[in-house]
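Sequence, structure tokens passed on for absentees:
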Amino acid sequence: MTFESENSETSLDSEDSEISFYSEDSINYIAEIETEENDESCSSTLSTSSDDDQEELYADDPLADAEWTAKYQKEVDAEKELERALTDRLYKKQRGSH
């Protein structure tokens, strides 16, 4: 037997050993994981499309009604007034200490 034929036999033996390396349980486990990953990607696609449907249902609705907007504006104005008062107090205190 020549060196080349020995190498070809060895390579065939190594291919067989790689194939037989995985048990049937391992192959089933790998197939199960792949199936779960496919199921998850399908379900995420489905949930995304249903989310899009929900957004379309409420697309024409206002984000806030007039009552909420008025209350929000009142809070913003109160915060601005507080900031002005605190700033004035800070400057008065700084001028008094110099």
